[in-house]
Amino acid sequence: VERAAAYVHDALSGRFRGLHWAVGSASRIKAQRVHRSLRRLRGLNIAVYLLIAFFERPSWCYATAQCGNPKEVMRWSTETVPPAASQAVEGVCILLFGIEMALKAYIMSPRNFFSSPWHIVQMLLLSLNLAIVCIQAASPTNLAILDRPQAATLNDLNPMLRPIFFVAISRSVRRAARSFFRVIPAVSDLIF
Q1: In sequence order, what are the residues at sequence separation of 6 or more whose Cβ sits closer than 8 angstroms to the Cβ of residue 104?
Q2: 75 has a pLDDT exceeding 70
Q3: Of 60, 100, 144, 160, which is most buried by a Cβ count within 10 Å?
Q4: DSSP assignment of the chain, as one string?
Q5: Entry pTM
Q6: What count of Cα atoms within 13 Å lies in the side-chain half-sphere of residue 185?
């Protein structure tokens, strides 16, 4: 029954994901059920991961107590959470993404999982983002960043990884981005 359900799911999706989705041990089938049941949690995790940028302190003023003039830095009157809290929320999001990736690798088998270049890109971006969050959390104070320009660039890099990771994990966003980049040369010919 599970095998038939996997084939029907593939037919409705218009793609064949391979035999590893249809054939497997009881523990893999159970893991696949758990993975399917976590879809809403995944959506919530993605939303929190992307929307944290609206509530965290901007990366260019991590090392200062006051973030400039509120009339110059537009924040839409939203509250700014302390850097430690935003790093903790981001760390939890990264942990949930890591659990999801591990579950998917178990379901697909590591060989099939790592044969996809997008899964490798996801793992690299996730590892890089986790390393940056750990380095920021290990920094004794945010004022120490002023003495280390290399660490200050980490604060600028971290928010930029979020949309790139979102593109890497979402098939439909990858298709839209691919279509956008294919259209750019034709539009640039019309403009110039």
Answers
A1: 35, 113, 119
A2: no
A3: 100
A4: -HHHHHHHHHHHHTS---HHHHS--HHHHHHHHHHHHTHHHHHHHHHHHHHGGGTBPPGGGTT-SS-S-TTTS--TT---B-HHHHHHHHHHHHHHHHHHHHHHHHHH-HHHHTTSHHHHHHHHHHHHHHHHHHHHHHSS-GGGGGG-HHHHHHHHHHHHHHHHHHHHH-HHHHHHHHHHHHHHHHHHHHH-
A5: 0.71
A6: 3
Q: Say which residue the tokens 């991961």 belong to.
A: 49
- Torsion on CA atoms 21, 27, 30, 34, rounded to nearest 10: -90
Q: What is the pLDDT of residues 35-64, one digit of tens each?
A: 778 888 988 999 999 888 887 776 666 555
